[in-house]
What we know:
With 280 residues, the protein is α/β, with parallel strands linked by helices. Helices cover 35% and strands 25% of the residues. Strand 1 and strand 2 form a beta hairpin.
Amino acid sequence: MRQRIIAALGITVLAATGLTACGDDSDAGGSGSTGDKITIGIKFDQPGLGLKEGSNYTGLDVDVAKYVAKELGFADDKVEFKESPSAQRESLLANGQVKMIFATYSITDTRKEKVSFAGPYLVAGQDLLVKADNTDITGPETMNGKKVCSVTGSTSAQKIKDTYAKTVQLQKYDTYSKCVEALAGGSIDAVTTDNTILAGFAAQAANQGKFKVVGKTFSTERYGVGLKKGDTETCTKVNDALKKMVDSGEWQKAFDKNLGTAGLKLDPATNPPKSFDACA
Length: 280
């Protein structure tokens, strides 16, 4: 009798252990997720695109990320945002700290060597932000002898020096907001990055009337959704979600809400994107 009781207790313990082990495989979000939540990388300092104010997140990148996450099965309260500075995006994906990145992440062949991309979900172009009363900077070719700022990990400032103005002086910070502060203080002459980012800063209430976007784009920047290298399954799902967002009109609503007020006009031939890159 005593042996039967001990045996029964052993079976009960084993059964409980087995149930616990089964429960450990419920991480639906995979890498960059915790249980039934998903962690998504965005910028925290780009008004109109990815901006954190207190516990509130706003911008086009944020709205597109939430839409895609919902299509993947994650409600808004299951989405956690993590700051993803330009220089850290590849490592955040490789280390599994985020599942996806929506952070003005231009698709390039060099970046494709380290990460996979879904999208694009927006096509922008490099431009210049200057003080509102500036009249001598009218494009990248007028930057000789000028001081221009961009962020570490971005190729924007270097592109001006390599292609347009050999004597331009480069200044780099870890965020664009610091570049804008330097522009306001007069220590630099221009900030360069995508027109969407610059328009967002110019439209901020605190900056209205202080700056202007030159309005002469000189690149094509295809914003993609950064994914861990080789994650074709998620890539396919993200592309499906982006297509649905565009076809339903929700993409246009998100753009108008976040960047339309800045007066930014995008090329209707490329925005909203009608086709997406093959997942690889």
